[in-house]
Fold this protein.
Amino acid sequence: KAGVTQTPRYLIKTRGQQVTLSCSPISGHRSVSWYQQTPGQGLQFLFEYFSETQRNKGNFPGRFSGRQFSNSRSEMNVSTLELGDSALYLCASSLAGEGYTEAFFGQGTRLTVV
Amino acid sequence: DQQVKQNSPSLSVQEGRISILNCDYTNSMFDYFLWYKKYPAEGPTFLISISSIKDKNEDGRFTVFLNKSAKHLSLHIVPSQPGDSAVYFCAASVAYKLSFGAGTTVTVRA
């Protein structure tokens, strides 16, 4: 069974640009969550989607947005990039029916803003 | 607002001995607690979880203890092995959101 796939693995962008990251969850998983990891900050929750609906959102500015498609694939968009947006962005998928279930992570997209 | 805290950034332990990782939380609404392990250049891998209605869960070499009154959980790894050297994240769940600690880097010495 294929794992969570994130594309691209690495990305270099210039300040002010926008970027779109993609996540394909494990087959059958309907929940997709996004996290930002920076040195010393651990993983910070961005948002969670289930059946194309955002169910929860972390404390990030509106420049960070996401969406989920009918096949459960998800995209995350960051507009007007800042140097501080350089981070590893991780996507996780889970069955997430009623109650919490274990989340499986992808390898992440390393975003560098210059 | 860091609701999940891992106050020890690093831990060094001898092979074969016990590793004890600690985690504190502030939100009494958390209903599930999890531990993840992460190697460089890889995503976190699930290790073990515990429901808020339990105080202990064991899976092979890994045991998680939950003390709700103290808002504290710990992960015990016995015996520690060289392959256990990694960053360990504590996480807590409520309302479809996982809150993570900053991580503890474990180094297992031969």
The CA atoms of residues 32 and 51 of chain B lie 5 Å apart. Chain B is about 0% helix and 55% strand. The mean pLDDT of chain B is 94. The two ends of chain B are 38 Å apart (CA to CA).
